[in-house]
Each structure stands twice: as structure tokens, then as C-alpha cells.
Amino acid sequence: MIEGARRTASQRTRAALRLLLGTDLACGLSVALGLFLISGGVHLWLGAAAAASAATGVIIASPPDRPWPRRGKLRQLLPAPLLGVPLFFAVQLLHHAPWRLGLLLVPATFLAFLAMAWGKRGIGIAIAVMLAMVFSMATPAPADWHEALQRSWHAALGAALYVVYATLMNLALNARYRVQAMAELLLALAALMRTEARQFTARDESSDVREVARPLLGLLLRQQAALADQQQATRDLVFESLRTPRRQRLAGMLLTVLEMRDHLLASELDLETLRSHPRQAPVLAALRELFEAMAQDVEDLADAMLAFRTPAPIPDRRAQLGAIRAGHAEETHEAAAPTAGPSPAMLARGLANRLGHLNDETVRLAALARGDAAPDLAIVRAHWRLFVSPTDWSLAPFLALWRWDAPPLRHAIRAALALGAGYLVALAMPWGSHDYWILLTIVVVLRGSLAQTLERRNQRVAGTLAGCVLAVALLASHPGAGELLLVMSFAQAIAHGMAVRNYTVTAVGATVLGLVQAHMLFAGASPTFALFERIGDTLIGAGLAWAFCYVLPSWERTQLPALVRRTLAAQSRHARLALALGQQHAVDSRPELDWRLARREAFDALSALVQATQRALSEPRAVQPPLEYLQRLQAHCYQLLAQLSAVKSMLLLRQDRLQREAIEGPLARAATHIEAAIGSAAQQTGQALQDDTAPASLAAGPVPLLDPFDNDITPWLLRRLDLAVGLAGQLRDDAARILQHTASGLPDSPSPPARPGAAA
């Protein structure tokens, strides 16, 4: 019990240190420092009123400020102040005309939320534009247009200074951001490794395998999706300007993580078969222990990088894995007679060997981090632009918006209607002195999906309650301007740094920031903030945001057909390139690059599908898609990727044990059958359900499976190809049922989804 408490305390301490040393808080502290320096400097130069308006300009310019490559940072920041400051001025001019102000707020909100078409980059722009209007409403009504212009000038000054500051700060922190992003990617990888290790349990050790397997499957899918997202964010930072050895080593570590992800997938192969054999329980336990030890090694490496320490070398566990293989060698030789399928001993040795590849990459990670090994960056140096996100603001997303079923367009209409309703309610409230608070709550709570809105609603209410209490207690002590600026800076750091990690904490910081900023905008003329009025405004805003989720809703079932087709197309292309014979020759060839790009798209498409499925869980049952079939499709996608990863490893790492003339035909036929199964299904709506043209076997006849460590591995490669073709047929059927269900809207009752490692 005491040992368990110590372990829990240690884990919490490490989690807290990772948060304190991670990218999110570093970015939040950078924003807070900018707010403090700019607002404080303007206060010394132009006075308290100008400093309050300049602080508003900083708040307008800061939402898009996230860790970003040096190239394109200015273009990332500029749209927010260029759009926000003119709207700040327009709201100032309409302070005395509430109805005309409402006629400005509604279309401006619609246009602001159209920025969501640019994805994550657009979210910061939309929030910045809305904050410009809301904080302009928070100021006292200007006496004339000269005062409105003066406030807007001060806000523009603060925004301009912050854009310059943030660009320079991003340049100064670029090296640290690279290390932090790489460390956070390693932590995501280690979490996935631990979850994978939990599968290495014999069936007789669990009273109800199905009940354990289902939540574990969901967790694996979510962690795979999170890892794919983190990988892209890390690519954008790490793959830029690889001129120094340190940057090159980080890029080499990233490439190693990509290979480790493939080995993780392959580690699930044959696992379900081994779990069903009680005699393999000791082997699974030993492999699980080694798996968890490797995960701990990766975590320790990430913690050392975050803490500015030189990582310790990671021990090579090949000897322990070799002992497991050797322990089963005699049993394998006893079962070496030609059989229709592999023996459990053979599968156990193969699984230990695949974990050996994972061990090798783990050891290489530490060697790269320490500078003991040199990275191979030929592909990245020549083609790094293909792997990073675009930094230009293309008009293509905006031009693609104008269809009635486009989610960003419907969300923009929904947000404009919600804000218009909130403004009418605010005007009718008896206190009415801070109508902007209802609008601010709507802006931060209303999201593109019901699941995200419900989460934000609850967190916003809880955070606002705590923030109001803190702000009222603070303002009741009548602090000076310097103290208020320090409080605002700290609140800004919390609000900006915790936005992705914990929105309840962000809501506390944002509430304190908003109330103190409103107090400073009034220059002390309105020092009191009624606690219950603020809470009432928050509840009204959160309720309106929730209610308007059901106005022009974009249910996930309407988006799923496109996501399913994208996933199938990506899987088909990845299979075709992974099975291409050209992959055997040169790792730095053009076919290798094409395969890497196809692999990235396969994981990205699957990640988008997993996230959509998670959001659908919070939707009304009447509009939910067939969740069981979606989970099955996702599991089969990962199984297919795992089989192809194993084939790819054989082609690249063990080609000396392959008979080239015996595999050329099966490789080509497997690619053709997979393309026929899922490539065509990606363009149809389910007609392929009854079209099962997959062959019984790609080989000419039954092939004996002998020990792969002492004999030719061609039969094992053919077995993987047969399994991959079978999975393609299952993918086709899963997709057909999903597309039929979403087209008809009829309920379905499928059997439980397959586990990721079930296709042995």
C-alpha cells in the first residue's frame, strides 16, 4: 500500500514537471511576458488608459500564437490584428447605438467563424476577432469618435508590438520548442507502448476477456490518433532548416519514432493466437515485462530532454529477447514438420523478434539524443517540404466552403445566430452593464460538434465560478496598477498555456483576465463586479451555446462517408506502394519517399476517422452512425497496416532469406486484390458487399511454415500477404455497411468489433 502511494506520488510529480517544462506552458509564459512588457511600457509612456487598450491589442493578437516554425510565423500572426483592430474601432463607434451594434456583431461573427475552414490555424483567428469585439464592448462608451480612434490606436499599437515580439520570441525559443515537441512525442509513444503491453496477457489471467478488450481497443485507437496528431506538429517544427547537427539528430529521432510506430503495429500480429494457448502465458508475461521496460526507457529519455539533461544510454535488451527465442527453439524444431499453420512456439519466437526490432530503435533513440549516433537524413533533406504543413493562407479552403452541408459554414451560421440571441438577452437583462460576458461565454463554449460544446460548457461554468470568486476577492483589496498587470500576466499565461491541456483551468485564468482587463479598461471607474451576476451571465451564455448546437447541426454521420472513403483510398495506396518490388533496393529512392507519404496519409486519415467516431459518442442515439462497425473498420485498418509493416520489414531487413522469383507474382497479385477490394469501395456506396473475389491463397498451393530463423522466410511472407488480402475484404464489407447505414439512416446490430491483434 505504501509502495503504491509512493508510485502514485512519483507519477504525479513527473506529470507536473512535464507540464511545467512542456511547450504549452512555455508558450503561455511567452505570451504573458509579452503582455507584461508591452502593457507596462505603454503605461510608462502614455498612461494607464492607453496601457489598458494596448493590453487589449495584445489579447487580440495572441490567440494564434502557438509554437510554430520560424518560416511563416509572421504570416500566422498578422490576420488576427488586421481583422480584429478595425472591428474594435467599429464597435467603439457604435457604443451609443445598441441596435446598430447588434447588426454589426452578427455578420462579423459569421465571417470570423468562417476562419474555421483553415482548421487549427483558423481557430485562433476566429477567437481573436471575437475577442476584439467583446473587449471593445467592455470599455466605457467613448465621448466622441476622437476618443474611439485614440483607443483603437492604442489597441493597434499593442497588437503591432506583440506581433513583432512574438515573431522574435518564436525565433529565440525555436531550439527549445523543437526539443519539447520531440519529448512530448516520445511521451505519447511511451503511453501507446504501455497500452500495447497490456495486451500481452494470457486469456486465463482475465475473467472476462471481451469486457477488457473493448475499452482497451478504444484506448488504443485514441492513442494512435493522438500520436498521429503529435507527429505532424513535431514534423512542422523539427523538419525545418536542418543545418546544425543538433537539429539533424532531432530529425533522426523523429524518423526513428515513425519506424517504432510500425514495429508497434507489427507487435500485435499473432498475439491473439498466443493468448489462447495457456502454455504461452510465461512467454507473454516475460515479453510484457520487457515491453513495459522499453516504454519506461522512452519516458525517461523524454523527461531528460525536457529537464535539459543529457539522456542516459538505453540498455540493449536483445539478449533477453534472444533468451526467449532460444527457450522456444527446441520446441520449434520439434514442430518443424510441414504444417498448414505455424505452431505457437514459432509465433512466440517471431513476436520476440519483432520486439527486438523495437528494442533496436529504442536504443538508437537514446544514441541519437546523446550524439553517439549519426542520423540518416537523405530523404528529409531532399524532400522535407512534403512532410510539413503549409504556412501560406490559401483561398482554397474558403472557396470550398460554399455548400450547404459544409461543417464550417453551418458552424459560422450557428455561431452568428447564437451570438445574436445572446446579445438580445443581454440587452434585456436588468443589470446590463456587462452584456459582453454573455457573448464571451458563447464564443468560447460553442464548438463545431456537440461533444466539444458539452465538454466546454461544463468546464466553462466550473472555471468561471472559481475565477469570479478569485477576481472579486482580488479587486476587493483595491490593488494598484502594477499589481493588476502582474495578475493579468499570470492569468494570461494560465489561460493560453492550459487551453489544450485542461480547459477548466483555462476558464479560471480567462475569467480572472477578462474581469481584471474590464476593470482596467474602465480605468477604475467601475470597480465592483457582482459575483452572482457574472455567474448568471455565464450560465445564460453556456445554455445558449448548448441550445444552438442543435441549430443546423453537423452530425458526424453526414461527414463519415467522406472520411471512410478517404481512409480506404489511403489504405489502398499505402498497400500498393508498400508491396512494390522497388522497395527492396534503395531506402533513399523515390519509391521509398512515395511510400512514406502514403503511410503518413494512411495514419492521418485513420486518425480523423477515430476522432469523428469519438465525437459521435456524445450525439443523440437517433443520429449516431453505426459505432460498432466503425470500431471494427478502424481495428481492421490497423491490422492491415500491421501486416503490411511486417511485409515491409521482411523486404527491407531480411531480403537475403527471400526467394525473389517466388515472391514477385504474389506481391503483385496481393496489391491487385487489395486495390480491387478497397480501392473500388472507396468510390462506391456498398455494392461490394457481395463481391468477394479474393483468392483462397496467393501461393500456388499449401506451403509448409518452417522455423523462420533457420530457413527461407518466403512462406511467412506469403502468409502475411494472404492475411492482408483477407483484411482488405473485411475492410470492404465494414465500409459498405457503414455507407449503407449512413445513407439509409436505419439502425444496425453488428457483432462486437475485432481486436487489433485478432488477425493472426
Outline the secondary-structure elements.
Elements lengths: L1 H19 L2 H24 L1 H14 L11 H5 L1 H15 L4 H16 L6 H18 L7 H53 L11 H30 L6 H22 L4 H5 L5 H26 L11 H10 L1 H6 L9 H27 L7 H6 L12 H4 L7 H22 L7 H10 L4 H27 L4 H17 L5 H19 L9 H17 L8 H23 L11 H27 L10 H27 L6 H22 L32 H31 L16
Helix pairs in contact: 2-3, 2-8, 2-21, 3-7, 3-8, 5-7, 5-8, 6-7, 6-18, 7-19, 8-9, 8-10, 8-12, 9-10, 9-25, 10-15, 10-26, 12-15, 13-15, 18-19, 18-23, 19-23, 20-22, 20-23, 21-22, 24-25, 24-26, 24-27, 24-28, 25-26, 26-28, 27-28
Q: Helices and strands, in N-to-C order?
A: HHHHHHHHHHHHHHHHHHHHHHHHHHHH
Number of helices: 28
Total beta strands: 0
- Give the overall average pLDDT: 81
Q: Report the structural category.
A: mainly alpha
What is the strand content? under 5%
Give the CA-based shape: globular
Q: How is this structure best summarized?
A:
By secondary structure, the chain is mainly alpha-helical.
Could you walk me through the main structural features you see in this protein, from its secondary elements to its overall organization?
The chain is mostly helical. The chain has 28 helices and no strands. It has helices at residues 2-20, 23-46, 48-61, 73-77, 79-93, 98-113, 120-137, 145-197, 209-238, 245-266, 271-275, 281-306, 318-327, 329-334, 344-370, 378-383, 396-399, 407-428, 436-445, 450-476, 481-497, 503-521, 531-547, 556-578, 590-616, 627-653, 660-681, 714-744. Residues 205-212, 685-694 and 747-760 have low confidence and may be disordered.
